[in-house]
Every structure is written in C-alpha cells, then in structure tokens.
Design goal:
heterodimer; A: 328 residues; alpha+beta; Phosphorylase Kinase, domain 1; Transferase(Phosphotransferase), domain 1; 2 domains; two-stranded antiparallel sheet; B: 272 residues; 6-stranded mixed β-sheet; 8 helices; elongated; transmembrane (chain A); ATP binding (chain A); kinase (chain A); Prot_kinase_dom (chain A); transferase (chain A)
C-alpha cells in the first residue's frame, strides 16, 4: 500500500546478527531471524539480555502504535493471558538512511500451527481447542472488545499442556465499531452473512471458518448463494458433523455470546464421550468388561493370549518361510 | 525538538484536550465530513490536463484522491501506464494500490480506510505543530503519547462522516472488470456502513457521452442498489483522467451539506 508519507520511507529488512537499539528506552535487541511478515511490517525473533522475544518493526509508525494500543488493552484483561505480553515499545533510527522505524517487542510464543497439531495429535483436540478459544473470546468480549481478524495464521498451539494462543491481535476492535482488519474467507460480510460491526457474533462466525479451513486448506469459493455453499460444505465434512447444529447457529449469528456457544459445544463433547463408551460396551461381548480399566478385564485377556500368540508365531514363521522360498 | 519533560507533558495535555474538542465538534455539529475521490482505472490517461495536477488541486480543496490500478490476470509486471497511479495519489494526498481484480474488494476498503487515517493524521499533525512547534509531528512523540494521539485519530476515523465519490474508468479494456468493480463497491459499503459515522457514496464513470464524466449513481448512503445501474456503463477509447477528476471535484459542493444531512436523518430513521 503506497501512502504519502510511507512511500518516502524505504521498507526495512533486517539481517541476522543485526542490532536494534531503541531511541527512547535504549534497549538493545539482536536479530536472530525472521518469523514472518504481514501487511504491517515484519516480525523477527530477537534476543535481549539472553532472553528470546519477538520484535515487530514497520515503516508504518501509526499502524505499530495502533497495534501496541491493542496489546495494552490485552494486558488489562486481568488474570488471563490472551495475547502475547508486551515487553517494549520504541523507535529505531536507521543508521544509514536516518529514517525512524517504530517497533514493539512481545513475548515469543513457540508452538505449532493449529492444523499441524490436529493432524499429528488427533481429531479429539479440535473440540478442546474450540472450548479454549470460546473461553478466551468470552473474556475478551466481556471486556468490550472483539478479536476481528480470527484466522489460522493468527493462532498457534503452545505446549505443554497444549493451549491455543493468539499471536496477532492487530484486528482487535472495540465492540460497536467497524472491524479494523479482516480476511475475506473468515469475514461474515464477505459471505453476506452479516455486517462488519464488531459484535461477539462476528468472532463466532470466524471461528467456524477457522474450523472449515482445517478440512479445506485451499479454502473454497462462495459461489452464487454463499449461505448455501457454507451449509453444503458443513454437511459434507464428516469431522464437523457432530457440531453441525451449533456451527449453523454460529454462522447465522444466532449466538449473542461465546458462552452460549461454549455451552452447546461442551454438551456435544460430553454426549460424544458417553456415546463412545456406550458403543464400546456394545462391542465387547462379556458383560463384565465394561471399561478398559475395569478390574475384571485383567484375567480374560490372559485366556486369549495363548491363542493370539499361536497365531502370531504361525504368521511370523510363515513369513520367514515365504522369504526363504523366494530368496533361496 | 527536545523539550523539557514537564513542559512537554503540559503541552501534550493541552493538545489532547484540543483534540477532544475537535472530536466533539465533529460529532455534534457534523462539520467535519471527510471527502474522497476513489479512482479505479487500468491504464494511463491520454487526454486533457495532467491528472496529478488536478489531484493536487482537489487536495487543496480538502478532497483527497485515492487511486486503484487494476491489473489483467495475465499481467505479471506493472505496465507503464500504471505508474501514473502512484503519482496521482501522491499529489492528491491519498493512497494508491495496484492489484489483480480478485483482490479488488479487500483493497478498495483498505485504501479508503487508510486514506481516512492519513487525512486525519494530517489534521492532527497540524494541531501538534501549532501547539508544540513546527518540528513536531506524530512520529516525533514518545511512544506512550503517540499511542494516546493515535487513539484520538482512530476515534475520529470511526465517528466522522465520509463522502466517497467513486470514479470509474470505463475505457474498453476495463469492460470485463466491471462486474468485479461492482462487487467491490458493494463490499466497500458493507465495510463503511459498519462505522458509527455516516457515509454518502456517489458513482461516476468517464469519459461521459457529452461531458467529462457520466453519473452512474447519485449521492446515497448505501451502495446495494447499484447492480441495476452498472450494466449501463459504456466503454470508449479515450481516457481523459485529468478532466474527469476535475469534474468529480465539483460534485461535492453541489448539495447543501445541511440539506443532505437532513435527508440522511430521515433515511436512517426509516432504517431504524
């Protein structure tokens, strides 16, 4: 984006080993590498006094200032770490071109992308993360803010224990105002499913789209009737099936608070566990073997073992014999 | 630039109070309407006066000129004609961006919003200079105070009234991009109507049949009614961007502000 003022200030690229010293607070940061870049500036991994941190720097001073304002309000949401904590805010005067670049330093959150984590650790985590996210959103909404630009890029799973955290809070907007920053696929305005006014339901819509993105990593077109497209996709995604009624409500803006949605999602998850155990009950013929941990299960497997062992040994011998036949 | 800390703090207090006054004035008296021309084009002007000069004139009149250059899908590099895009926005005190048509919707709204912030920052900077001295600017303030001032700028951006005149280049090469432009404008209206402040939009295309510009849609608070008027755009061979911006400039003054606000009041009551 070319702006009047910014176009005169060259874009900045910092190399590894470079040192940034704040104009006001005089802290020194050694650049360790780039973590990412977005519409507003670049984020670097840096080190100061032997501690790692993330440093965001941009030629757009006002955008940095706006983000800092948001991060500060996050610190005010007490007793809960919503976003990364803010460590320092300062300007850096480029020694060569003399321009001043604004930056801020925040806690470095190390983790894995949501999709990666769910693929490697299992689908059952999806529900858990949704509950975590709804908890955080509830806290944020209660303090008068809406997250706005909720999307996988702005989320990270830190561990242990696994916890879904927000890493970019640039879209956070006061309730009642217009959403500051959004990404089309996650924006209900784009889908014709509501306004771009900051309301709790705006975030809940985006939350559903984040879940969609897990199963449609390349996203999808909105088509002629966007609402129908969403409903069809939802219906066609087996992993989201059990949440379908809640997700439809969220897409249609029928939840006015995260708490309502959280209650419904929890109910689904609790029922799910019940039905799981019921299914297991039905699958296992001996009446006494109710659960895996049941005491009576200890003896029965022992009876089965000799038979299974026999089959195993036979299979291995057969395998070796086949090899012998082939290779000799 | 370096002021005594206590002294500076007092001045900043004065400044912030002054900003609060401006905010109140804007909100209560509806004086401060931000005016923007949004030019959407895909090529170079080839007739009439220099568009950059006209844009500079518009900026003098309190109208900022933003420009969006639309690329063809197969264009990998920025064609020469589009260099003009940045120049016009620079002298028009606005924001420019060159995009493929798929990104048009999101671009139109970010450009418009950034231009608002830019204009308001300009106003704030002027105030700063008056109170803190000619060398002061937002960027020279210590981070904490800059944060406070930016909050004011944001408040203003959210609450001020806005007039956007969309000026569409309807030359032959733009023809296949018009449906996307139409969608992007509806999207813009969704974004801006989420603000607390009120909006008015008008759409003009150029060149007009006999005049420099051709009215597509008269000033209205929403853009959802444009789908019926858009196909009427006719395309021609010449691109008189300069004369078009000039003609667009005059469309702002036409309606008495008071009357239009009264009209909008009625329509917002209807909506409610």
């Amino acid at each position: 984006m070319k702006m009047n003022q910014a176009s005169r200030k060259p874009e900045l690229t910092l190399s590894q080993g470079g040192v940034i010293k704040g104009k006001w607070h005089k802290n020194r940061y050694t650049i360790k590498g780039e973590l990412g870049h977005g519409a507003i500036g670049k984020v670097y991994l840096c080190e100061s006094n032997g501690k790692q941190a993330a440093l965001k720097i941009s030629e757009k001073s006002s955008s940095i200032t706006t983000e800092v304002n948001v991060l500060k309000t996050f610190q005010k949401v007490q007793g809960h770490r919503l976003g990364p904590s803010l460590l320092d805010v300062d300007d850096w005067v480029h020694p060569k071109n003399g321009h001043s670049y604004s930056f801020y330093v925040m806690e470095y959150l190390k983790g894995k992308p949501l999709s990666f984590f769910i693929k490697s650790h299992g689908e059952e985590w999806l529900g858990i993360f949704m509950l975590q996210l709804l908890d955080d959103l509830a806290k944020l909404h209660e303090s008068g803010w809406v997250f706005g630009d909720l999307k996988p890029d702005n989320l990270i799973v830190t561990y242990a224990p696994p916890r879904l955290r927000w890493i970019d809070v640039g879209g956070t907007t006061q309730i009642g105002r217009s959403i500051k920053e959004y990404t089309e696929f996650y924006d209900r305005g784009y889908w014709g499913m509501g306004s771009r006014k900051a309301e709790p339901s705006y975030d809940l819509f985006a939350l559903v789209m984040v879940m969609f993105h897990l199963y449609y990593p390349n996203r999808f077109e909105k088509g002629r009737s966007p609402e129908k497209t969403l409903m069809n996709k939802l219906h066609m995604t087996p992993q989201l099936k059990k949440f379908e009624p809640c997700l439809i409500k969220a897409l249609q803006g029928k939840y006015s608070s995260s708490k309502q949605m959280k209650r419904d999602i929890s109910a689904v998850l609790m029922n799910q566990q019940k039905t799981d155990t019921i299914k297991k009950k039905q699958q296992t013929p001996p009446v006494k073997r109710a659960t895996h941990q049941g005491k009576s299960t200890v003896r029965k497997p022992k009876k089965e073992h000799p038979f299974m062992e026999g089959v195993g040994i036979f299979a291995v011998v057969l395998l070796f014999y086949t090899f012998y036949l082939i290779f000799s | 630039m370096v002021l005594d800390d206590v002294f500076e703090h007092e001045l900043l207090d004065i400044f912030l109070r002054r900003m609060a006054n401006i905010e109140e004035e804007l909100y209560l008296m509806k004086k401060g309407t931000l005016k923007q021309i949004l030019l959407i084009t895909d090529g170079c002007s080839n007739k009439g006066e220099d568009p950059s000069a006209v844009a500079a004139l518009a900026f003098q009149q309190g109208i900022s000129v933003n420009v969006i250059g639309v690329l063809e899908d197969e264009q990998s590099e920025q064609p020469e004609g589009l260099q003009e895009v940045e120049e016009i926005a620079m002298s028009g005190g606005g924001v420019s961006q060159i995009v493929y048509k798929q990104a048009l919707a999101q671009t139109v709204q970010t450009v418009t919003k950034q231009a608002m912030t830019q204009t308001l920052q300009g106003v704030v900077n002027q105030e700063l200079k008056q109170i803190l001295g000619p060398k002061q600017s937002l960027e020279e303030l210590p981070p904490d105070q800059r944060g406070e001032v930016m909050e004011v700028v944001e408040d203003l951006g959210e609450t001020c009234d806005l007039e956007v005149l969309v000026l569409i280049d309807a030359s032959a090469s733009m023809h296949n991009k018009l449906p996307t432009v139409q969608e992007a404008l509806i999207d813009l209206s969704v974004s801006l109507n989420a603000r607390i402040g009120r909006n008015r939009f008008a759409i003009y295309s150029f060149p007009g049949k006999r005049k420099d510009i051709n009215k597509v849609l008269d000033w209205s608070p929403k853009l959802d009614s444009i789908s019926s008027v858009f196909p009427k755009l006719t395309s021609g061979g010449i691109t008189p961007t300069g004369p078009a911006i000039k003609a667009a400039m005059y469309q702002f003054g036409k309606k008495s502000l008071l009357r239009s606000f009264r009209n909008e009041d009625e329509s917002s009551i209807e909506e409610a």
